[in-house]
Amino acid sequence: MFTFFIASDVLMLRKRKKPVKNQEQKKAVTILIQPFQDIKSENLEKVVAGIKKVYPNVKVLEAIIFPENTYYKERNRYRADSIINFLSGKTKDGFVTIGLTSKDISATKGKIKDFGIMGLGYRPGKACVASMFRLNKENTDEQFYKIAIHELGHTQGLPHCPEKMCFMRDAEGKNPTNEETDFCKKCKTFLINKNWKFSSI
Description:
The protein is α/β, with parallel strands linked by helices and about 200 residues long. It is about 30% helix and about 20% strand. The protein has helices at about 1-15, 40-55, 80-90, 140-155, 185-195, and strands spanning about 30-35, 60, 70, 75-80, 95-100, 105-110, 110-115, 120, 125-130. Strands 2-1-5-9-8 form a 5-stranded mixed β-sheet, sandwiched between helices. It has a 4-stranded mixed β-sheet with strand order 3-4-6-7. Helix 2 (about 40-55) packs across helix 4 (about 140-155). The protein is globular and about 45 Å long.
């Protein structure tokens, strides 16, 4: 019996001495805000402030011009999918980029080749785009940051949400941003699991 207990103690000590793998904490996702040169500085400042209230880990890049291949001359618009492809190519792991513009943007929707939109983000993806062009004249800046947050949510894999107060609700061809207040608990938990570090939960 004595030998058995000694053997057991040795086994327990060996188990305790096994090295524990230190899992490095992943850095929080950084949102890169890429303004295009058409957007006014005051509008940019307000949308950045709005995004930061929701998610503080943000970096604003220098304004750039649209790549030539994004312009759709027939409708005097910029193709959202081409903008996203361009921004995705510049976005490294651990980052997500949102392009901001005041110009009209469009995408193919069903049988409609060129459908005017407020924003677009692929689910999942590394980049997205939001436009002020189709927003209501009242509370434009508030609407703009909510559109931006919505598209950023899509890049992380979030689908549309049935909660009317959630940033991820489906606009259904309208503009319900005035009813939106935050990510709902379910959507926020999803983003936290994607390494989003919110200032408050």
